[in-house]
Amino acid sequence: MQYHLNGFKPGNYQIADSARQPASPPPMVDLPTEVDVLIVGCGPAGLALARQLSEFADIKTCIVEQKPGPLLFGQADGISCRTMEIMEGFNSSELLVKETYQLHQNAFWEPDAQHPENIKRTHKVRDARLGLSEFTHGVVNQARLHDILLEGMANSVTHLIPHYNRRLLELEVDKSLTQNLSAHPITATFERKDATPSSKVETIKARYVVGCDGARSAVRKNLGIELQGDSANKAWGVMDVLLVTDFPDIRVKSFIQSKDNGAVMIVPREGGYLVRLYVELDLLDKGHRAAELNLTVDDIIAKAKLILNPYQLDVKEVAWWSIYEVGQRVAESFDDTPAGNPQGLIPRAFVAGDACHTHSPKGGWGLNTSLPDTFNLGWKLAAVLQGKSDPRLLQTYEAERRKVAFMLINADREMSALVATRPTADKNSQPVKKSTADIEQFVARQNGFIAGTSIGYDQSYLCTGHENQHLATGFHIGERFHSAKAVRLADGCPVHLGHLNKADGRWRLFIFGSQQSPLEATSDSARLVDFLANAATSPVQKYTPAGADIDSVIDLYAVFQQQDLSIEAMPELLWPAKGRYGLRDYEKIFRTDQAMDIFEQRGIDRTRGCMVVVRPDQHIATILPLNGYDQLSAFFDAFMLP
Questions:
Q1: Alpha helices of 457-535 — where are they, by DSSP H?
Q2: What pLDDT, on the 0 to 100 scale, is given for residue 351?
Q3: Does residue 310 have a cis bond before it (omega within 30 degrees)?
Q4: 260-289: string of b/e by CB count within 10 Å (b at 16+)?
Q5: Over the range 195-214, which residues count as b (16 or more CB within 10 Å of their CB) and which as e?
Q6: By the number of CB atoms within 10 A of the CB, which of 28, 265, 562, 564 ranks highest?
Q7: How crowded is residue 522: how many other Cβ atoms within 10 Å of its Cβ?
């Protein structure tokens, strides 16, 4: 798709530039007085959490934002492979795939050895993230991602919409009530900022609160949680521009280092014309902020022109620009419990996204770490609020996501130093060697982390069974379920199995059958299905509420190697009767295909087969042998409530 030809216009890219209008904020209505979950902040973390919770009619959610309306000009632009997978969980990946600029190449530029005042391309390479997912790393205005999440919220069963124009004045957590899980220990006071003669103060009580309100988070400050870390005292300018240039790689992600004038990183934007430039600026004295430089967008443009010599830049329009300083910080805690939580308290207040980790924007990690933060937390809140899981499940949020935050800032610190020509604030230090080879090596080494596909959670009761990893070497316990295709038995349709893992709070149990036909009563596959169908023994049956569909809590699928199977011969549990009319579900049984054999692609033991249990956030919880009945029951019994 192409757009922005005659100027940048925010809004729905499915509408022509000439007709496009940005979304209007909903009318101001009073805040509710009492909710289950209060979300503060409408960034990627807040909206992803709200989108997930909006699917549960029995959970009352409120999301509040200080800005007057939806975001129009996004600070973030990169959409990682993993974020695309999460958006597929919301049934929203197709639009993003259609609208984003797809990153397929990286170009590297250095000073020309013959004419060092000029830059010269050294080489181009295939983007290292290609092939890590069925999705490609893309670039699009962050506001479009917001729009898609907002639309999903509004169209959900709860018709959830944000409350804009509210500033958090005070947040209190009544410690005497935090372990009474039916209580509402959170009291939040907001100042309403709409155009009324006098501001109005509103108070809301909540069972849980999640601060998704950015690096200067009022929630974090009210909870007394500090950000810990440092600043490299290095300033960069960033701008989204429409320009005319003879620079040949303007539509390729490019890393450029000049001899004396600094560095530029170019990121092509969606629509075919818009481009983002990260421009290395001056060093900052210790304790100083980038805002104190008093630089304008014209200063950033002038510096970019110097770095890109001998190529010409004629900037026609600046859609958005900013100046920032490089720094990496992580919150000392991600919830309101004491450090280490020695008493095993249940957290009631959380921080997520930029509220608990800050870094430079060059790696495109902000949105792509913030959104998975609350994708991790959302299903846990829902499971506890619905009485499906032990409340201690909420303790795992900090344990799992704080580790990722430290990985993030370490990677950002390394990349920030590599991209800059003088990475530190020491003005007496020598510039780094003018070579982009280290950048290329870093990208190749960190490609799984950059794509978000290699991020995994440590061993715990939610990630276990590592002794069985050899049964499926391509499904890494703790990491996300790496999708591959199988053929649906009922109609011969090829399907990405990862796309079955929707963001609806359900667990998925995949049976990968052994070399014996499931039609043989003595096969491990047949015996496992018999076990799961037995109400006296089955964890699937145990945790399904009376009167609910059999897949309402644990959703069962089967993938077999045999090619001569037919749906009518399969056990009833694998094509169950569901809903008010008892209609059959024909979309739970699959077979392999020689052209796309998932057993080969994901290293699944053909002789023995295995079970793969997938969490509601698409991460693999455990791998078990097909006869691991007791282990399967013990896994769910560790945290589920019947």
A1: 524-533
A2: 98
A3: yes
A4: ebbbbbbbbbbbebbbbbbbbbbbbeeeee
A5: eeeeeeebebbbbbbbbbbb
A6: 265
A7: 7
